[in-house]
Amino acid sequence: MESRVLSRTAAAVHGIVRLGKPARDTACVVSARPIGAVGDGGNLIWGRQLRHALVLESPPVSGIVSAKREILRPSFAAASSPAEGSDSAGEAEVAPVGFFNKYPALVTGFFFFMWYFLNVIFNIMNKKLYNYFPYPYFVSVVHLFVGVVYCLVSWSVGLPKRAPMDSNLLKLLIPVAVCHALGHVTSNVSFAAVAVSFTHTIKALEPFFNAAASQFILGQSIPLTLWLSLAPVVLGVSMASLTELSFNWLGFISAMISNISFTYRSIYSKKAMTDMDSTNLYAYISIIALFVCIPPAILLEGPQLIKHGFNDAIAKVGIVKFLSDLFWVGMFYHLYNQLATNTLERVAPLTHAVGNVLKRVFVIGFSIIVFGNKISTQTGIGTCIAIAGVAIYSYIKAKMEEEKRQMKAA
């Protein structure tokens, strides 16, 4: 009986070996690499690599059965290199480790670099455009229009696949988009009126407005330490504003309205929490915001643009550069916002907070270098104090959020 079972086992193994090259060992199995946990719905990708197994010379019948089961069971080892003793390593399929998984820190660093780089380029190009084409309402429409076209093209090729929209979700997103549009337009009005560095210094007050809205509108209790951390921000912005050479009330008030608008955008965003991915969500918000921005641009700047705005810009730089500047400033605006979202999704809240502060430092620093803006000593000190205050505030708030998450998880 034992000899008959052994002979049948040997014959079966011999038949399998003959399908490939002759092997010196007595048995072989098909190896598999698991992709995800099978119990969680993962898939198994079966490879063609042949691995050698050892058959005992004279086991009892029960031993043969167990050995046979062991031989036929797929190997779930994570190794992707050919097994030792294989006749041909070329027959093995090596599963490469993805670059994103192999170097996560390097990839995240690249995301941060591109986020900062695109933001700096946008601010510089935007200000240069305003130097010969001072129409912020129209330029705001161009920013959103180029981004919307980009989103529509991406949807058409399925990168990403368009998420469905219904009336209920639309009602939730409209207030978010209106606040986004108002904040975007007023930011551009400020950029056109004053130096880029000054606008970003004023916009450093945004955490103060967020804290105030959370306390007095949403009814959330803000700790005293968080309020105290905002004192340097208010002090620094006040110092910078008093001696800013490019100061005017239009630029200052517009930046303040932008802060308030983005604060309310955050409030409405919390009410409009949805399972839609951030890329699709930002695309829908951009489309709605575009329709919000078009009417005021036509009413406030339309007659001037038709009369002399376009002609003056073309006369100064030429039609090719003018159209090119409009396109690229819109493209950089959309890309830096989209990349900021993708970057912040990869990191912890504390890293997010530090990243936002460093971004503002980069923009202020590069704008001063590129445009050669002269700032007084008091303005420089005030700007540093404001940025330091934002950093402290962001750190404390991020730590509080982390503690809340840990308490919920426990």
TrEMBL record:
| Highest taxon of the lineage | Eukaryota
Transmembrane region(s):
103-125, 137-157, 172-196, 208-229, 249-268, 280-299, 319-336, 357-373, 379-396
Where is this chain primarily localised? Answer: plastid
InterPro entries this protein is in? EmrE-like (IPR037185), Sugar_P_trans_dom (IPR004853), Tpt_PEP_transl (IPR004696), TPT_transporter (IPR050186)
Subcellular location as annotated = Plastid, Chloroplast membrane
What keywords does the record list, in alphabetical order? Answer: Chloroplast, Membrane, Plastid, Transit peptide, Transmembrane, Transmembrane helix, Transport
Q: How does it sit in the membrane?
A: Multi-pass membrane protein
Q: Is Cell membrane given among the entry's keywords?
A: no
User: Could you name the Gene Ontology cellular component terms for this entry?
Assistant: chloroplast membrane
Q: What is this protein called?
A: Sugar phosphate transporter domain-containing protein
The organism encoding this protein is Liquidambar formosana (Formosan gum)
